[in-house]
Specification:
269 residues, single chain, 5-stranded antiparallel beta sheet, alpha+beta
Length: 269
């Protein structure tokens, strides 16, 4: 008569077993059918709790309307003239709303939509709901959707740095891969992997993948080709090219004595 549920990072985090599960998957090279144990977790921060009923975590980010709508539609969001972008949770009687300065249905995209805030409301009364009262799993998944939009549908030529949650997950992945490959010259500090190579010291940002050689500047290293991603062990099947790219750069620079690519050797020489 016991009830069985699919564990979410919220449950693993609260049980204080999350890191143990992550380590177990790596040590046994178990690939999950979806990103579960390595799924990003989002919890209300101090500023959000202070504002009580709304989150401005992604305020000011401009996004591409068509790509944003396509991404959110796949995740159960609805867009309308009156209500904007909304996701309804019928069982919990909650509605999540992304407030955006935009006309989603304008024929011309003169000004890119700008995210203002995210708010949760009671489905029956439309009254705002305090963030601390929103189920943690729902809050996390809603913020994960918004983070995805900001990361993928951003406006401009510069990819915004990934969220703190994504960096935390990649930190675990990088640290476990480094242990498996016995790369003793790689350490993770904050949002960067620091690599002590033969030809110099390098850093790789765990959010954007931007790579630098200390005292020289940025390095132009092409991302790993999609056909070779399978050669880098990731503990989940979900396509995550950015994590594969970051890992490949770290491994490449940690073993820079083996480099043969002339385009890279010229940069680090």
């Amino acid at each position: 008569k016991d009830q069985v549920i699919i564990a979410h990072p919220v449950h693993l985090f609260e049980a204080k077993d999350w890191s143990n599960y992550q380590r177990y998957l790596f040590n046994n090279k178990i690939v999950q059918p979806f990103k579960q144990v390595f799924r990003e977790l989002y919890l209300p921060n101090v500023d959000e709790l202070a504002e009580r009923t709304q989150s401005r975590r992604y305020a000011g980010h401009q996004v591409q309307p068509k790509k944003t709508l396509a991404l959110l539609k796949k995740r159960g969001w609805l867009a309308s003239y009156e209500d904007g972008l909304q996701k309804v949770f019928y069982k919990e009687n909650l509605v999540a709303t992304i407030y955006v300065l935009a006309d989603w249905f304008a024929p011309s995209e003169l000004e890119s939509p700008t995210i203002e805030l995210v708010r949760f409301e009671n489905r029956k009364t439309n009254a705002p709901v305090a963030l601390e009262s929103v189920p943690k799993l729902i809050f996390s998944e809603v913020m994960r959707d918004v983070d995805l939009v900001v990361s993928v549908a951003y406006v401009g030529g510069v990819d915004p740095e990934a969220s703190l949650s994504t960096i935390e997950i990649r930190t675990v992945v990088v640290e476990e891969v480094v242990k498996l490959l016995k790369l003793e010259n790689v350490i993770v500090k904050g949002s960067h992997a620091h690599i002590a190579g033969i030809h110099g010291d390098y850093t790789v940002h765990l959010g954007s993948g931007v790579t630098h050689k200390m005292g020289t500047g940025s390095l132009n290293i092409l991302p790993v080709h999609s056909g070779h991603r399978g050669k880098i062990f990731l503990p989940f099947i979900d396509d995550d090219p950015k994590s594969a790219e970051i890992l490949s750069k770290i491994i490449l620079l940690a073993e820079d004595k083996k480099l043969k690519d002339p385009s890279i050797l010229v940069q680090i020489g």
